[in-house]
Amino acid sequence: MNYRHQFHAGNFADVLKHVLLVELVRALQRKEKGFVFLDTHAGRGRYDLAAASAGDSLVRQPEWPEGIGRLWNATGLPEAVTSYLAMVRAHDQSRGSLSGAPRFYPGSPLLVAAMARPVDRLVLCELNAAECDALRAVMAPTRRCEVRRADGYEELAAVLPPLERRALVLIDPPYEVQDEFARAFAAMKEGLRRLAGGVFALWYPLTGRARADDILAALREFAPAPVLAVELNVAAVGAGPRLSGCGLAVVNPPWRFDDAAREAAAVLAPLLAQGPGSGGRVEWVVPPS
User: Fold this and answer.
1) How is 63-108 classified by DSSP, letter by letter?
2) Which domains, and CATH codes, for the chain?
3) What is the C-alpha to C-alpha distance for residues 262 and 257, in angstroms, rounded to an integer?
4) pLDDT 10s per residue in the chain (289 long)?
5) What are the residue numbers of the active site?
6) To 5 degrees, how large is the angle CA 164–CA 258–CA 241?
7) Cβ-based neighbours of 128, under 8 Å, separated by 6 or more
8) Which residues pair with 54 in a beta bridge?
C-alpha cells in the first residue's frame, strides 16, 4: 500500500469525517459504559500541514486551505462543528503552533484519544510499516491504546465482540485497489455478525467512478440495521477519479445523531463549496424500525 494521507490531511473530506466522528464519540459517551474504538486504517495519527505540499519528487498543492483552513476563523457554527474545531485548535496549540493558520492536524486516533474516558479503549490498525511506526510514536502516551501493524479488515474478527460489548468501528480505507468497496462491505457484514449492535462508520469517496447511488444501493442490500448516510459534494461529480465529494455511512447511529449530522451538513456544504453542483445531504438508507 503506497497511500500517504499527508498530502490530503485537513481537506474537506477530513473535515466532514472528523466532525461526524467526534459527534459519534460524544453520542456514545452519553452512556457510562465504555466502548472500544477500532480504526481499521489509522494512518500516522498526526499531520504537519506545512509539509503537505512536499511530494516525493514534485511540489503538490496542499488541500487543507479548502478544508480546515476555511473553518479556522468561521463563526456561527453548530455545536458538532465547534466541538471538532476546538479539539483541532487545542492540538495545534499543544504542538507550539501560534500562527493564525493551522499547522498540526490530528487524525482520527488523536481526536478519539483526546475524548476517551478511562473506561474507553482504542485499537488502531495500520498496515504500512512507516505509517505504523509514526502512529506508535504519536500514540505512545495514550493509555488503553493498542497499535497493531495489521490489515484492519482482518482484525475485526480479533477485536469483535469486545469485552465492553460496545464498539465504534471506523472503516476509512484509501481506495487504492479495485475491490476496496467489496472488502469494506464484507468487513461490515462480518462485524455486524459478531456485534449486531455495534456502530460502524464507513467513509467513501464520491467520484465519476464511485457514485453515491451505487454505494448506497449496495449498503441497502445487505444492511440488517439502520443506516444513515451523510454526504458532502464540493463540486459537481465529473468523469474519472477526481474527488468531488465524500460520504460517511453509519450503521446503528446513536440516538439523535441524525439531527446533529443535518445541522453540520447544512453549514459545511456552503462553507466548503468549491464550485457549481456543491451541496450536502443526510439520508436514511435503511430507516430505523
Assistant:
1) SGGGTHHHHTT--S--HHHHHHHHHHHHHHHHTT--SSS--EEE-H
2) 5-286 (3.40.50.150)
3) 9
4) 444 567 789 999 999 999 999 999 999 999 999 999 999 999 999 999 988 766 555 566 889 999 999 999 999 999 999 999 999 999 999 999 877 889 999 999 999 999 999 999 999 999 999 999 999 999 999 999 999 999 999 999 999 999 999 999 999 998 888 889 999 999 999 999 999 999 999 999 998 777 778 888 888 887 778 999 999 999 877 655 678 899 999 999 999 999 999 999 999 999 999 988 889 999 999 999 8
5) 172
6) 95
7) 1, 3
8) 59
**Amino acid type, 45:** G
Beta carbons of 105 and 49 less than 8 angstroms apart: yes
Query: How many residues are present in the chain?
Result: 289
* Distance separating alpha carbons of residues 36 and 229, to the nearest angstrom: 22
